[in-house]
Amino acid sequence: MNQMTNPNADHCTPMLRVAGLSHRVPLETDTLTILQGVNLEINRGESVAIVGRSGSGKTTLLGLLAGLDTPSEGTVELDGAMISQLSEDKRAELRASRVGFVFQSFQLLPALSALENVMLPLELAGMDNPDKRARELLERVGLGERLNHTPRQLSGGEQQRVAIARAFACEPAVLFADEPTGNLDNRTGQAVSDLLMALNREQGTTLVMVTHDEHLAARCARQLHIEAGQLSEPTAEESVS
Amino acid sequence: MAASQKLHSVRRDWRERDVRVVLAALMIAVATVATIALFASQLQRTLVSSASTFLAADRQLDVENGRPIPDSWLEEAHSRGLRTGQMVEFSTMVFGGDQFQLVSVKAVSDEYPLRGDLEIQTREAGPRETVRSGPPPGEVWINPRLLRLLGLTPGDTLEVGNEKLTVSALLVREPDGGFSMSALAPRVMMHKDDVAATGVIQTGSRVEYVYLFAGDTDALESFGAWLKPRLEPSHEWRSVRDGETLSRSLQRAERFLLLGGSLAVLLAAVAVAVASRQYAMSQRDTVALLKTLGLSGPGIARLYLRRLAIWGIVGIIGGLAIALPLFWVLAGMLGNLLDRPVELYFDPNAVFPALATAVVSLFAFAYPPIRRLRDVPAMRVLRSQPTGERRELWRDGLIAVAAIFGLVWLYARELDLVVALLGGLVLLLLALGLVGGALIAGLRRIRGGGNAWRLALVGLYRHRGASLSQMAVFGMTIMLATTLLLVRTSLLDDWQAQLPEKAPNHFLINIAPDAKNDVADFWRERGHPLENLYPMVRGRLTELNGVPVKEAVGSDRNIGALNRELNLTWMATLPDDNKIVKGQWFAPDTVSGVSVEARLADRLGLKLGDRLTFTVGSETVTEPVTSFRTVQWDSMKPNFYMAFPPGGGLEGLPATWITSFYLPPDQKTELNTFTRQFPTISVLEIDHIIARIQDIIRQVTLAIETILGMILAAALVVMAAVVSATLRDRQREGALLRTLGGRQSLLVRSTMLEFGVLGGFAGIVGVLAAEAAVYALQYRMFEGSFSWHWSVIVPVPLASALLVSLFGRWQLGPVLSVSPMLLLRRLE
Ligand SMILES: Nc1ncnc2c1ncn2[C@@H]1O[C@H](COP(=O)(O)OP(=O)(O)O)[C@@H](O)[C@H]1O
Ligand SMILES: [Mg+2]
User: Fold this and answer.
1) Closest residue (by CA) to atom 10 of ligand 1?
2) Transmembrane ranges (chain B) (predicted)?
3) Contact A116 B451 (CB under 8 A)
4) Considering only CB atoms, which chain A residues are within 8 Å of B737?
5) Of A78, B340, B458, B747, whose CB has the highest number of CB atoms within 10 Å?
6) Which residues contact B16 (CB under 8 A, 6 or more apart)?
């Protein structure tokens, strides 16, 4: 077994280590710099909120942290593996075993039922009895009665709860959430974020959450600000020392 | 709506993938159906003009032992724009070089031949010249054998009755000579205007008047219809189709074209149906939005109807824009193949089925799901709601079946064909429903699993709705394409068997018994051993069970075989291509009995044991019928209605021998040596006719291959359309699977496996349904017999599995090439 998927990785190494990260995309005439010189460390079990205005580069950063894309410059080390240098397949393997996602727009497969959507990552990871585990999770998020409904038959909050169940299905080491309440009203958003935080605590997952919701951000141990592709941490000195 | 806005909306439509698929399906539908119909109609023309030379005209009116037809009939033909010509045929004695000889005279008018040409020589063994008309008045052209028999040379005089005519050329080949072996007496061709002066034709003479007609197919048809009620029993209105040799091939080729066209119609309809249904689904949200904006249900229906109409116009124009150049290219290929320019013939009627296909499939298949859009609740904008679609689906299904039936009927007008095809389709859908249902139920038990196989099977279960309908369309497409492939193969095999590479192309007739061995030696020395050498006795069938035969079968039935002498033979063994259908072939040492050709026996109403009496010269022979046998009249070998056992009824009667053999073109000069050595033997050259038939078969083959190609291309498009119907869902799924950590290779393998299983399964069911349809078609239309076609049963499902899994792979392409991040952004 190689090091990057080693579950017994040294507890002292941070879960995420980012150095000199920049991201640029080519436009028709020139190139657009979305992220510029980002440095960041996130420890195991920590919960971190990344706050910023729309268009500031939050989703891009999250995608790079999760290895969904490769940066133009810099390195990303996730759970001891240099994911910015891994092949796409190795990163996929890593995602399957260590990473969970919650998206702003839920990203459930419309053709599949709630149950099947939750079973998907379990099947990919080759788990036994994906059916049983998926049912348990859906019950845990309060959708035990809606197993066979398709996303179109569920409300936004319900869809996001399915997505949360899916994200925790494989007991990920780190969970990335991109504005999980962004498409929901206040009260529903509150309920969904409660659920997210609760599951996070239960499983001891490292949480990296992007949001523009100050309340939600405040529930995380650390808050980072991003503006025009540059990251800053107001209380950085205190938390490092 | 202003024109600019309309244009804008079509252009906006075009940007939607589903609309592009509908439009592409429509264009392909129109293009395939129109091309096939145009080409079929063109081919029919060239075929008929190729084949017409066998009659020297497009149609013949034969009058046997009757009077000439009234002039008013010919005037009627002229008034319909037809060209006409005349021939008079009779036998008579001619005098030349101090000898008498019985000859068969053909007196022709100036117009002869209306189709085809003649070959003559101006001296014996001289070069052959091709001419387009018969001899002028005062001259005769005679068969080379007659020249030798009478010891004449070109320029000498031949007396026909009271007329002295100059022998100006030797007649080597006439277009309508055929290979009827009745022309035993040597041929003399003269001008029709000289006939009266010869004084040979008296009332009561056996004379055949033949009238030739040529012109436009429509005019011929309408003249034929006008003529029908006026015909007398001694009249026979003939087209090439009625001829023995070609009729079967031509009819089968025509049916194949019909079948191909019908399949094109079906496939096109399926493609339009699939694509438009997909479009309707994708429009639901838009419609819901329009409703919340205040558009009424009828308003929405109008909006989409207008859109359909515009698509129809675009589809038809686009389809024709493909069909016409394609047709032009094909007609050019036909010309190349035939080594002569082919007159382009755009049959406007041929375009009609294409238009009907477009309009009907648009309104029968595309409209219903789109019409249902007006029932989409506005609430859908906020929340998707299950709609009560079941009952409506049934109605749509019925409309679709009726429309398909109507279209194929419109196209083919053959109930058998329609029933066989639709029956096959229904069987297929039933089988798919049952087996597919069972398969899905089986798959339901499979749960999870990381490996590609399990993921693929789970995928099949997950997408069961889409999988089943894709399977149905693949199955249908495969069935239709396989049906055509099988029918094509059997047709081509048949033709190949009928006219093999070295089919006999020369007949030797009138071989005296004592010359038999010398003739055989002559050809053996030159490398052409004679294989089928048969004795031949000419005799008339006069009595059936002691009753004059015309009374026995009823005088109202005009059976040609009773009006002329038949070729009788004896043989010990049954020829390879004959088959006994009833009774027994002669046992060794049997000397009694006669074997009768089955169709003639049928027409005469014969039973085994009936006693037939033949008159041969002054003798009579009576024998019981001991068997009926089928004969391959188009085999280019000597064939006989009546066969006796050796030493049987024909024993002791005057016989000559007849044979046919293959002589390669470069050895034709051997014939000169032969005729010098055996001056009394007639050589019948049919190499020209065989070349023509092979020519025709080549044309038909090209047509068949082309149509098969087009159908296969259309089938591919239909399958691609069906696969692409789920493209967006698949891509979203692929992107998400990658995000969730699926490896690319796993994704590829499981997708290909999933589609492979689907394609293989559809292939199996499709091939079985094709076997059923082919059985029905062969049985009813192509007169074949059923057998399993292993050549398709195994490879077609495999090919289908491979092809469909490649389609799946192709669909996945964009999912693999970009980062999951970008995919998610795009899909948002
Ligand atoms: N692939 C891309 N091509 C072009 N522009 C991009 C691409 N990805 C992101 N952007 C742009 O980069 C900026 C940051 O995007 P994003 O990370 O989604 O912001 P946020 O999530 O903070 O709203 C936006 O202006 C977005 O339009
Ligand atoms: Mg974002």
Assistant:
1) A34
2) 21-40, 256-275, 308-330, 350-370, 393-412, 418-444, 702-725, 746-768, 788-807
3) no
4) 120, 124
5) A78
6) B279, B282
CATH topology of domain A45-69+87-232: Rossmann fold (3.40.50)
Distance B732 CA to ligand 2 centre (A): 18
- Considering only the beta carbons, identify the residue of B383, B448, B825 that sits closest to A127: B448
* B257 touches B32 (CB < 8 A): no
Q: Is the pLDDT of residue B109 over 90?
A: yes
Residue of A61, A107, A117 best to disrupt the B interface, most CBs of B under 10 A:
A107
Q: How far is A88 from chain B (nearest CA, A)?
A: 8
pLDDT tens-digit readout, B588-608: 888 899 999 988 888 888 899
Helix (H, G, I), strand (E, B) or coil at B627: strand
Using a CB-CB cut-off of 8 Å, the residues of chain B touching A153 are: 383-384, 386
Residue B403 has pLDDT above 90, yes or no: no
Q: Which of B28, B17, B22 is nearest to B715 (CA)?
A: B28
The pLDDT tens digits of the residues spanning A65-74 come to 988 888 999 9
The residue-averaged pLDDT of B495-507 equals: 77
Give me B669's structure tokens.
């000069």
Q: Which ligand neighbours the alpha carbon of A58 most closely?
A: 1
Asked whether the beta carbons of residue A122 and residue B448 sit closer than 8 angstroms, the reply is yes
Bridge-based pairing of strands B59-64 and B207-214 is: antiparallel
CA distances in angstroms from B393 to A19, A62, B220, B372, B390, listed in the order given: 59, 46, 49, 10, 5
Is residue B595 within a helix (H) or strand (E), and if so which, with residue range?
Answer: strand B594-597
Q: Is the pLDDT of residue B178 over 60?
A: no
| pLDDT recorded at residue B341 | 63
- ipTM score of complex: 0.81
Given a contact cutoff of 8 angstroms between Cβ atoms, the answer to whether B329 and B371 are in contact is: no
**Residue B217 neighbours by CB under 8 Å, 6+ apart:** B45, B48, B58
Asked if B710 and B798 count as a contact pair (C-beta separation under 8 A), the reply is: no
pLDDT at B167 over 90: yes
Interface of A with B (CB under 8 A): 59-60, 63, 68-70, 88-89, 92-97, 99, 101, 103, 105, 107, 109-112, 116, 119-131, 152-153, 155, 166
A6 φψ region: left (φ > 0), alpha (ψ -120 to 50), beta (else): beta
Instruction: Please state the three-class secondary structure of A73-100 as a single string.
Output: EEEEEECCEEHHHCCHHHHHHHHHHHEE
Distance CA B355, CA B318 (A): 12
Q: Determine whether the interchain pair A68/B819 forms a contact, defined as Cβ–Cβ distance below 8 Å.
A: yes
Contacts of A88 in chain B (CB under 8 A): 744, 819
Residues with CB under 6 A from ligand 1: A 25, 32, 34, 52, 54-60; B 822
Average pLDDT, chain B: 80
Q: What is the pLDDT of residue B190?
A: 95
Summarised one tens digit per residue, pLDDT across range B548-592 is 887 877 755 566 667 677 888 999 889 888 889 899 999 888 889
Q: What is the pTM of this model?
A: 0.69
Task: Choose the mutation target among B462, B470, B728, B740 for the interface with A, i.e. most A CBs under 10 Å.
Answer: B740
Which of ligand 1's atoms lies nearest the C-alpha of A58?
Answer: 22
Q: Please list, residue by residue across B54-65, b when 16 or more beta carbons sit within 10 angstroms of its beta carbon and e when fewer do.
A: bbbbbbbbbbbe
CA of B747 vs chain A CAs: smallest distance (Å): 10
**A204 CA distance to ligand 2 middle (Å):** 25
Structure tokens at B251: 């009819």
Bridge partners of A32, per DSSP, are A25
Q: Which residues lie below 8 Å from residue B75, measured CB to CB, with a gap of 6+?
A: none
- Residue A2 has a pLDDT of 41
Q: Where are the domains of chain B?
A: 1-60+246-413, 84-213, 425-500+686-828, 506-685
Average the pLDDT over A213-226 and give the result. Answer: 89
